[in-house]
Design brief:
Length: 351
């Protein structure tokens, strides 16, 4: 399915299903709204799917992997070999998020969109668009056609997952240098200075932080991305993983599958998707507030609050997986049948 077809077909939430979920929450024997954001998340899922019988039986985490040419500017403490190593480990089931996902009953699908000089590895899905991106501080990351190809790859991943019975999609990424590209995209879309958004990523020195900020400023100056055109922004100062994750949000919304965001990179990709089609917002859930400085700004722009605030900044979709047990706990109450009527007591009413 093409990008244009997907954008035209995104349905948005079902208000009747939303009301049905809210009525069921209010029938349960507890103070109204007392589970806060957890109730809101379940309600949002029911409204999206159009079914008040909310279930999250099959969970799939897509970890989109790609390299970023901007690392040539000294914006990271690691080189591209780390992307290759972690991508391979994800396929083997031995990376950090694999262990977390095993506890949360979540499938992990690593996808190679453009890991530089990556020969492939068992367990890694190959959807290569190009061999890493160019250095955004010197010119565009990729062509517009390549950006759209990466976005349509994300759309197809979401639709394939739906066809296999997935009930929720989780977003993760792996790519050295992608907090730089994410902050560049966010700076353009939010109209904020890079200094407001840039963090130390996997662990930069003070000098490295200065180089990172300068690289973003130079990338924006040289490429002049159009903030009114999210594809132009992704193409010029983004990355393959960001474009693919944007497509995953679009495909999830089209397929009425909730999309659980991870940290900064996923949040920025989601912002691109919402700027392309505001109805995508109906599909998005924020797992956590990343420790990256820009994450709060992006979530605010999306109108989302993270379910967890634990100073996490690992990536790989680890924050999204960490939120699954919270959703399970909320559903255990929602599906319990522990109603005011069952207890023979008068229901609470709004005061």
């Amino acid at each position: 399915m093409t990008l244009e077809e997907t954008l035209r077909g995104i349905p948005g939430a079902d208000p009747q299903a939303r009301e049905a979920v809210l009525r069921h929450w209010d029938s349960l024997a507890k103070p109204l709204g007392s589970l806060g954001g957890l109730e809101e998340a379940v309600t949002k899922i029911g409204a999206l799917t159009g079914d008040a019988a909310v279930r999250l039986d099959q969970r799939v985490l897509f970890v989109l992997c790609a390299d970023n040419g901007v690392i040539a500017q000294g914006v990271t403490q690691s080189d591209e070999s780390v992307t290759r190593a972690v991508t391979t480990s994800l396929g083997q089931g031995t990376s950090t998020v694999n262990f977390m996902a095993a506890q949360a009953g979540c499938q992990v699908v690593p996808v190679d969109l453009g890991v530089r000089d990556f020969p492939g590895a068992p367990g890694v899905l190959s959807r290569r668009v190009r061999n890493g991106t160019a250095d955004i501080s010197q010119g565009p990351a990729m062509t517009r056609a390549e950006c759209i190809q990466a976005m349509e790859t994300g759309i197809s991943l979401a639709r394939e997952a739906q066809g296999k019975g997935a009930s929720i999609l989780l977003m993760g990424e792996m790519g050295i240098g992608n907090t730089t590209t994410s902050c560049a995209v966010a700076s353009v879309l939010l109209g904020r200075e890079p200094e407001e958004l840039v963090g130390r990523g996997a662990g930069l020195s003070d000098a490295g932080l200065v180089r990172k900020t300068q690289a973003i400023r130079q990338a924006i100056a040289i490429n002049a991305p159009d903030p009114a055109d999210p594809i132009d922004v992704l193409q010029k100062v983004g990355g393959l993983d960001l474009a693919g994750l944007c497509g995953l949000c679009l495909g999830g919304a089209y397929s009425r599958l909730p999309v659980l965001l991870d940290g900064l990179i996923a949040d920025v990709a989601a912002l691109c998707a919402v700027r392309l089609c505001p109805r995508v917002a109906d599909a998005l859930l924020a797992a956590h507030l990343s420790a990256e400085p820009g994450a709060g700004c992006v979530l605010e722009a999306l109108g989302l609050q993270g379910m967890i605030s634990a100073g996490m900044r690992l990536g790989e979709g680890s924050g999204a997986v960490a939120a699954l047990p919270l959703l399970d706990l909320a559903l255990s109450v929602y599906q319990s049948g522990h109603t005011f009527a069952a207890l023979g007591i008068e229901a609470y009413t709004p005061q």
